[in-house]
Amino acid sequence: MAPALPPNLATVSLLSFLALVSCAASRDILQPGSSLAVEAYQSDILKSPDGTFSCGFYSIYDNAFTFSIWYSRAANKTIVWSANRDRPVHSRRAALTLRKDGTMVLRDYDDIVVWQAADYLRNVLHAQLLDTGNLVVKNTSGGIVWQSFDSPTDTLLPSQRITAATQLVPTTQSHAPGNYIFRFNDISMLSLIYNVPDVSDIYWPNPDISVFDNNRSRYNSTRLGSLGNNGVLSSSDFADGLLLEASDAALPGTKRRLTLDPDGNFRMYSLDDSDGMWSVSMVAISQPCAIHGICGQNGICHYSPKPTCSCPPGYVMTNPGDWTEGCTATFKFTCGDQEPVQFVKLPHTDFWGSDQKRLRWASLEACMDICISDCTCKGFQYHEEVHSMLGKLVRALADKLEGHEESWVGEFVDQELSGQFNYLQARTVIELAVSCLQKDRNKRPTMESVVQTLLSFDEASD
Questions:
Q1: What are the residues facing 356 on neighbouring strands?
Q2: Cα separation values, 176 from 105, 180, 191, 416, Å
Q3: Side-chain half-sphere of 319: how many Cα atoms within 13 Å?
Q4: What is the pLDDT of residues 57-87, one digit of tens each?
Q5: Mind listing the pLDDT tens digit for each residue in 271-282?
Q6: pTM for the predicted model, two decimal places
Q7: What is the Cα–Cα distance from 76 to 256, expressed in whole angstroms?
Q8: Which of 32, 42, 50, 166 is the most buried (most CB within 10 A)?
């Protein structure tokens, strides 16, 4: 029988034991020479002092783990950062180790280093998970020599800075990197970019309007932004200093995250502490069909009422399980084929990124002829309202030409000439323009006759 301890020693021992248990249960620090093992992934974790974040091995599917940071109180333990998103480790013998030389490495079951924090970190004191969700390595002076905030995956957290090196890439359902990027572009503008091997273009801010109409500034070489604790995203290129704000920004203490989702949209989420569920409090793109690549090459995005993908006539889904791979033609088109070509009208549809040339004042028939003669052309976009306006103008001019009034001709001549022009030549040019725009091609003049008419002006002036 073991001898009984004096009451004061027993109390001290009990308190010491409780302190050790408390320390083990809420460990936020990893000491040099220590490891986190994948086999004990449910308990061998780091937790921020206030309990908001946890860090350790995270099971993404059977026998596959990432070393990640997640929101502890979220119902689904939402991941906000991963060291090895595109290279998961095995469920046996993998470990995250802070070596005594200061390097922090993630090893797989075969001892291969899958990920390493940084090279040549000197005088390392420990690694620590902060209340901000930032995993840091500190030196003996208390300075941060490495931090996860410098290498985000798909999420930004409050107080996290956006720099020229910051890049977010979404995580797909298969836990692989997606086809979109959030970063500063070449003119220091915070942008969303569709990025696949054959295409890389900006879809936010709106590429169809100017930088200034997007409330951005391009005369700024600074590349710096941040997500504030108040739910405001600020950036050096935002013209008014404030562009994106959470709908619940007035609620203090709300836990938030800004995530580039797999569909290419950039959303801010707010956490409800009562049930651990997330709600969207801000979205960058209100019309998801404006996101490039959402339905893949040749795919069409429409609302019914949610964004829905479909294929144009003569095309089928390339991969029935993934719209991002787009649509493939069910027919074969050989350049120079003499078989008749039929165009299919797709109202209110724009195939972005496919423009080869732009023609002004061209008729529908002319556009068809040009496309048929070009082996790389699969279709064209025709603005009927523009052509309708042109048709009205042509009819109005034709009516004026048939009348006896002459003063109207000056309305179509450059005003800087101050009326100093040859009336007959001006009228002839208008007649020539109207005849060239006749709907019936047989009534249009030949190019030879047009040139002869224009040359006759030079002869008359000699």
A1: none
A2: 21, 12, 21, 62
A3: 9
A4: 999 999 999 999 999 999 999 999 999 999 9
A5: 999 999 999 999
A6: 0.75
A7: 15
A8: 166
